[in-house]
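Protein modeling request. Please complete all fields; requests missing the sequence field cannot be processed.
Requester role: graduate student
Desired output: 3D structure, token encoding
Chains: 1
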Amino acid sequence: MSTPERFIDGIGNLSVQGTVARIELTVIEKLPLQDETPQLAVAERLVMSVETMLRLHQQMEGKGLIKKRENEPENSAKKK
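Delivered output (80 residues):
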């Protein structure tokens, strides 16, 4: 049995409610003319635990796909 694959053109909304994260996967709905902005439509939503989303982030960082900002302290996101 093969695993279905889907190409996406972008990420729409990302939301977190409690321990659940939702990421909208978007595709170009209509090809734009030269001076137009592409029209994107939500194709699917990934729904996962925040823990899984953090593991995904760590895997992407480990593979060099994303980098931590060097001039930003690690705990800057945890403002009180």
